[in-house]
Design a protein that fits this description.
Layout lengths: L20 E10 L27 E6 L5 E5 L12 H13 L8 E3 L2 H7 L15 E3 H9 L4 H12 L2 H14 L22 H14 L1 H4 L6 E4 L2 E4 L11 E9 L3 E10 L2 E10 L2 H18 E7 L4 E8 L5 E6 L3 E6 L5 E10 L1 E2 L7 E9 L2 E10 L8 H23 L1
Parallel strand pairs: 12-16
Antiparallel strand pairs: 1-15, 2-3, 2-10, 4-5, 6-7, 8-9, 9-10, 11-14, 12-13, 13-18, 15-17, 17-18
């Protein structure tokens, strides 16, 4: 999946025409067969197909390749992330490495603050870094994602940004850049804080982004154990020992958050991403994680909706040589559906329009939204199939007149 961050989706607030009204075209869609990519979609459902349920207060299960939401429950409600916040810390570190500002063999100083607040004296999860020592970034990453070391998180934050507070600002900036729209971070290690809140959907966006953007660094999340300074610790992620293809990511638990996990597993080339939070015990977390992943892998199959470059519909154009422009898919559009279910879905082309000429070929101007029983389950961007130049003066005058009449009719309808 390449658009988990949301960067590939059209901006619904972009000004595209003089009227700027929301236009939509209803479509009937009969599913075909495929397994290809699109973007995450919002689905306000609390149970899965066939009445499947979870005891987790917060839950989200998505297919990474197609972006299909298989199950969700309170996925857009704010919750405390606990140590799953360290995934965001890791993303900032990975981004710095990718941009060339940081290397795996760079070393950071373990400050008194990092040791006392997140190390052995704190009696929390730690890699047991020694104060005033210097540790390579690669070992700090392992201490962060394998040991869930609070000290490792603080050392990385101080080494990169100078302080936890300044690093938290970097976390929030990166969160917005990759498409996490509702989450806010105040510290790099998951310390309980009323201001540190995330959503399950945002955490799935984060997980998918880390997996697809940093494959060489993501592998640390799946490492089973790590020994630092003669202290051997096992990875805290229970999914890694369940023989279900799990390769990440992080667990977390606080009094105010309950037990949570952001996990991912791959079977037969299919990757699922799971977010759970608010469970009462570690055993509940393990059991619910296994149940959801097993259900997701067994109960669904891929179906193709549109091939790459297929014409889906058209968008109205204002002031152009043509009155409309064809809209085509950017990539193949597919989703997962319950096995053996050949149900029909409905779709809508949604855009702000009419588009204002000139219109460039290949511009992302719309989305195709797919619905099941009135619930949105998938969306994907649409591009213009051809360019539309500015029309002749008579053509533009006619468009202006039509727009004026449309506005008058709409205003009169609204008054009555």
């Amino acid at each position: 999946m390449t658009a988990a961050s949301g960067a590939g989706r059209p901006n619904p607030r972009r000004r595209l025409g003089p009227v700027h009204r929301r236009a939509s075209v209803a479509l009937s869609v009969l599913l075909g067969l495929a397994n290809v990519g699109t973007s995450l979609a919002a689905v306000p459902t609390a149970v899965g197909e066939g009445g499947f349920q979870s005891i987790a207060p917060y839950a989200l299960l998505i297919d990474a390749d197609t972006g299909t939401v298989l199950f969700e429950k309170n996925a857009d409600a704010l919750m405390a992330p606990a140590s799953t916040a360290k995934i965001m810390t890791a993303e900032v570190v990975f981004h710095e490495i990718k941009e060339g500002r940081l290397r795996l063999d760079d070393k950071f100083l373990v400050s008194e603050h990092a040791w006392r607040t997140g190390g052995a004296p704190s009696h929390g999860s730690a890699m047991f870094a020694v104060p005033n020592s210097r540790i390579a970034v690669e070992d700090l990453i392992k201490g962060l994602v394998i040991d869930s070391g609070n000290d490792a998180a603080i050392v990385l934050a101080e080494g990169i940004a100078g302080s936890e507070e300044q690093f938290a600002a970097m976390m929030n900036r990166r969160a917005r850049e990759i498409g996490m729209t509702k989450s806010t971070f105040t510290n790099p290690w998951g310390r309980g804080d009323p201001g540190q809140k995330v959503t399950a959907r945002d955490m799935a966006v984060l997980a998918d982004y880390v997996i697809t953007t940093y494959p060489a660094l993501y592998r640390y999340f799946g490492q089973r154990d790590f020994t630092w300074d003669r202290v051997h610790q096992l990875n805290r992620n229970p999914l890694l020992t369940m023989n279900i293809g799990a390769d990440g990511l992080k667990t977390g638990d606080l009094t105010q958050s309950g037990y949570g996990i952001v996990g991912s597993a791959v079977q037969k080339g299919e990757r699922l991403i799971l977010v759970l939070n608010g469970l009462r015990t570690g055993r509940d977390r393990s059991n619910e994680s296994l149940k959801l992943l097993d259900w997701g892998f067994r109960s669904f199959e891929p179906k193709q909706l549109y091939a790459a470059g297929e014409t889906v519909g058209a968008a109205k154009v204002y002031g152009g040589a043509e009155s409309e422009v064809p809209l085509v898919t950017e990539k193949p559009v597919a989703m997962l559906v319950p096995r053996g279910n050949d149900e029909r879905l409905t779709g809508k082309i949604v855009y702000k329009g009419p588009l204002s000429a000139p219109v460039e070929k290949g511009a992302k101007v719309a989305e195709i939204k797919i619905f099941r029983n009135g619930t949105e389950i998938l969306s994907a961007p649409l591009r213009t199939a051809e360019a539309v130049p500015v029309g002749s003066l008579p053509h533009r005058a006619m468009d202006a007149g039509l727009e004026f009449l449309t506005t008058l009719i709409r205003q009169n309808f609204t008054r009555h």
